[in-house]
Structure formats: structure tokens, C-alpha cells
Amino acid sequence: MKSLWAIFFGLIFLPYSAFAASSDVTPLDLTHSTVGYAALLIFGLAYTLVMLEEYLQLRKSKPVLLAAGIIWAMVGYVYSQQGQIDIAKVALEHNLLEYAELLLFLLVAMTYISAMEERRLFDALQAWMVGKGFNFKALFWLTGILAFFISPIADNLTTALLMCAVVMKVGGDNTRFINLACINIVVAANAGGAFSPFGDITTLMVWQAGHVSFSEFMPLFTPSVVSYIVPAVIMSMFIPNAKPNVAHVHVELKRGALRIVGLFILTIATAVAFHAVLHFPPVIGMMMGLAYLQFFGFFLRITLKRSLARKAQVAIANRDDLALKRLGSVVPFDVFRRVSHAEWDTLLFFYGVVMCVGGLSLIGYLNMVSEIMYYQWDPVWANVMVGILSAIVDNIPVMFAVLTMQPEMSMGNWLLVTLTAGVGGSLLSIGSAAGVALMGAAHGKYTFFGHLKWAPVIGLGYAASIMTHLWLNNGLF
């Protein structure tokens, strides 16, 4: 979600020649076969339906789930006819392992975000911004800057939805402001997610694949800032200085809200430690972090009566009837209810993407594309093209395809493809989870064509960020 959550991944994305080595049999080249062409057609049709999600009201997970099943059924049939079904089984199991790590990692992250939302942390932040009396231009910059700095932790999808809620609340019927502010939020959230392993699924994929360590993402900070600032400065010139007419509403945090934020930070630190110190997949640390939240939920539950009694005494002493009414609506914190609120459509969409790309890789198409882009072209231009493709197709399948190709690249180029895949999705509203989500949240006010009008301005930021990276981090190439 260029969402978070914003939706997050394999440990090592091996080329499928590794499967051949394990069985001493070369995978079949089906790129010029009926099955190969049919697989491409099916994947293309499925992704067309994904891009039309806003208009068809068809959840994006449905077409890719169906496409994944059909592609693997065709591949399995061909391999079984050739007596090489073991190669296809190993490839299938490899992709399932990749998805299992992705699923569990994202599930924990989404559960924490849902818990923070339930404890009203985001509502309090929203109320604070609305209540400060900022004008439209100030809110444009404030929501953008907050989106940039929150998305590295909370993921770009969730961050974008939070900031959009603020914009919708204060924008009212000012469609021009809402459209520009939403574009600004999408660009900022995607840019902020590009320099952090937790900010975007593509960056997390690169980190878990072992191509870039946790600390080595920091050289992308300045290019990411540039990719946001350039279009933001231009768009801000078209924002009026008038103040919105909104009333301030006080929001009281629920018990344990700030401690859950602390546990989330501890969970991230645990995941980093498992990967950096023990060389285990970060998902092990994330699952351990889920236990932190479960035990804290248990603590909140067993101490609920005592806490309510103490607060009731204070409310009675202060004759605060509203406080007593709020206490009567308090329910125990339930971790598993938070798990159920995860973005399951997004998680299943990732499954479909991973399996579709895996099937196309076994057919041989990714090796073909890799040969053209990374061996016949300059890797820099190949990675620039990855960013442009991510705006059309979505950055997750594009990055998964790159990692599956396993091109030989310098650290500078791995950082470049991470940057372009992250910020390139901002070029179109359908290029990231954040953009797609905001088209739904601000339906009719932030649209595909409303975003498209500003694509040249966003493209300036995209080009400037690439040039900044090539200049500042020249020693990494």
C-alpha cells in the first residue's frame, strides 16, 4: 500500500536454474509455446482487472488468485507430461515459502497498526491537526511531511489513508484542494517508504533478499526527499491560503495506546536483530513481536476492572458524566480481533502476484527479460525502466520479478532499483497501493485523471531523485 500498509518478501530469491541444479534436469523452455502465450495472456487480463478495481468494484485479489491457479495448472500439466513434475513441485514449494514469510511479516505489522487505530492513536493525531487552525497550504505541507516521515514505520498505505482522512475532514467541498493534497500524500508516502525496509513492500523484499542491509538504505534518504519536495513545491503554488471551516473535536487515547507504539518499535528492533545478528529471516522477530502484543493485551484485560474503578472514582468526584459514559463503553483489548482486521484482500493479492510471477519465471519469461534489460542494456537504464513499469503494473510484481531474475548489480544499482520501484509508483494513481486506496477513500475527488494531470510534475521529482542518487552515491556503483 503504495499502505500501510500499506501492504511488505522472500528470504532469498533464487533463479529457477537453482531448481534445475537440485535435480540435474534443465527446466523446460516454454516461452514460445501455447502454454507460455496463454500464461502471459491470463496474467495480462488479471492485471487489467486489478487496475480497473476502482471502476469494477472487484477486489484486486480475485483475478490474480484465479490467474495463479490457472497458470500453475497449465505448467504442472506440461511438466507431468514430460515426466519432470518434481521440478515444478520444487518451484511451487519455493514460491509458497516466499509467500509464507511475506504473509506472516505483514500480518504482524498490520495487527500492530490495527491495534494503534483501535486505541485511537490515529484519531488523536487527526484531531490535533484539525484543531490547530491551519490554512489549506499549511495542511498541504503538514500532511505531506507527516506522510513522508510516518510511512517508513507504519507503511505507505496506512499512512496515506490516515492523512487522507484529515484532508477529507477539512477539505469539505473543495475538490481542487482534496485532489492536490491526495496527490501530495501519495507522493510523500511512497517517497518516505523508499529509504526504509519497513516503508514499502518492495524495500522489505530487497532487504530480506540480502541485497541491501538495514543500515545501507540510508543513502536513499536525500534522493527520497528530492522526489517528494520537487512536485510538492510546484503543487503548493496552486493551493489557496484560505482557512477551512471545521470544528475541533477532542479525542482521548484509550489505555495502553502509547505503550503499543513502544512495543511496535521493539518488535521492529527484534526483527532487525534476528536478521542482522543471527542471519535468520526477519519474520521470526516479527512473530516474536506479536507475542509482545499478546501478553500486553492479556495485561490490559486482567487489569481492566481495576483501571475502570479508579477512573470511575475520578469521574464521579469531578461530576464528569461524559467520562462515566465513555467508561461504560470500554471493552477488553482483543489481539485476535486486531488480527482479523488485517487487509486480507491485500495479503491474498500478494499471494496471487507471487505465484503468477513464479509461474512465469518457471516458463522462462523472466530469464528472457533479464537477458534483455540487465545484460543488453545499461543496468542504470534498466532500473529507471523498472520505476516506470511499476507505475503501470504495480511495484510488487515488478520488484519480485527483478529479484527472481537475480541480475549481477552493484550496491548503487540495487539502491537505485529500490528507489525507482518505490517512487516510480507515484507517477500514476494506480501505480501504488496508496494511490489505489485513496481513490476509494476520496471517491470522486481524487481520481485517476486528476492525478494524471500532475504526472509531468511528479516525473520531474522522479528524474531529480535518480540524478541525486547517481551524484551523491556515485561511489556505490
TrEMBL record:
Domain Citrate transporter-like span(s) in chain numbering: 48-422
Example of a GO cellular component annotation carried by this entry: membrane
GO molecular function term, any single one: antiporter activity
Origin superkingdom: Bacteria
GO annotation, biological process: sodium ion transport
Predominant subcellular localization, coarse grouping: membrane
Record localization: Membrane
Record keywords, A-Z: Antiport, Ion transport, Membrane, Signal, Sodium, Sodium transport, Transmembrane, Transmembrane helix, Transport
UniProt membrane topology term: Multi-pass membrane protein
Signal peptide: 1-20
One Pfam assignment: CitMHS
Residue intervals passing through the bilayer: 30-52, 64-79, 99-115, 220-239, 260-278, 284-304, 347-368, 380-403, 415-442, 454-472
NCBIfam families in the record: NhaD_1
Family note: Belongs to the NhaD Na(+)/H(+) (TC 2.A.62) antiporter family.
Protein name per the record: Sodium:proton antiporter NhaD
